[in-house]
Amino acid sequence: MGTSLASILTKSPLILLKILLKFCSTENSNETVESLTYDPVDKMLFWVDGFNRSIRRIRIDHDNDPSDEKAGVEIVHFLNDEDKPQGIVSDPCTRMLYWTNIYNSRPVVERSFLNGSQREILIETDLLRPILLALDVMEQRLYWAESLRNGYFHIMRSFVNGSERETIYRGLGQIVISLTVGDDFVYWSDYNHKKIWCLRKDGSSRSPLSLGTFRNPALGLVVIHHQPVNCTMLSEDGQAEKSFAEKSEIITIAVCLTGTCLILMGIVAALIFRVWKSMGCQRLAFVSNKNEDDTFPFHYFDDYSNSYAMVEKATP
After folding, report:
1. What is the pLDDT of residue 131?
2. Cα separations (Å) of 237 from 89, 161, 183?
């Protein structure tokens, strides 16, 4: 479940239960709910129906009973026979919808607008089974967990356009069943050990930290933000403002370059001053009076006092 779903869970935990009961009833026994995400702007709940290879949505009205039959379900995407959508997240700022598709022939990560338009594939190479998906809205990065062979798994990330893809953790012996991301950490739950783990999302941690062991596996994780997402912090092209660490690095480089320039300017100024002073002394050394006999070059004198006395003596 994405972090935006927290607003539903905190306001009325029964809403989600009623929706699930409605669509998993005997009347709709051929439908499944495998992953959820919530758009707080239009109050839309999106979910993946893996059985029918579709992505659906319904408007959530907190004032009315969501199990009302008048609440219409819309199909955002109806995928091909080989497709199998799994994880899903939505972006309230850019109005985009992201999901993983784990069909065997070519697993991919895809996106479209929330209304289903402009569907495109973001990542389609070197993927085995990208099951879970999470979104860092402010940094505009996607995170996903990928199950590999022989019990290995990866936690990976990229920008929302699929660029700068990287692996932030390689693990063994866990079955990741839920994934979410916060301000500084990425969190996931493990089915085998019934634990919740966290790892610095920049990949700087050597190993994940266990946040606790539970009697039953945590099937869903949500990071609750006390302040709403500030979409004005995103740049015009949809990318987030640089993180504090990136800004600090830029400031440090700028200060170093400024200091280096000032030092070089000081050295150049000192050299110019020495050259100017040397040229001035040479000019003074060749200054003479009208009477050639009264000329006393300064560099013939042992000290300043003698030269001053001789000048006075030579002067009529």
Report:
1. 86
2. 20, 11, 21
- Asked whether residue 217 falls in the same domain as residue 95, the answer is yes
How does DSSP classify residue 242?
Answer: P
d(CA 200, CA 64): 40
One domain for residues 272 and 222:
no
My answer on whether 178 and 83 are in the same domain is yes
User: Residue 87 and residue 176: Cα distance in Å, rounded?
Assistant: 12
Q: For the segment 72-95, what is each residue's pLDDT rounded down to a tens digit?
A: 889 999 988 788 888 999 999 999
Instruction: Judge residue 26's burial from the number of C-beta atoms within 10 Å of its C-beta, 0-12 exposed, 13-18 middle, 19 or more buried.
Output: exposed
**Residues spanned by the domain of 206:** 3-229
* Residue 165 exposed, middle or buried by CB count within 10 Å (0-12, 13-18, 19+): middle
Query: Are 44 and 173 members of one domain?
Result: yes
Percentage of residues of the chain with pLDDT beyond 70: 70
Q: What is the total count of domains within the chain?
A: 2
DSSP tag of 277: H
Q: Is residue 235 part of a domain?
A: no
Are residues 218 and 89 part of one domain?
yes
pTM (two decimals): 0.67
CA–chain centroid gap for 67, Å, is 38
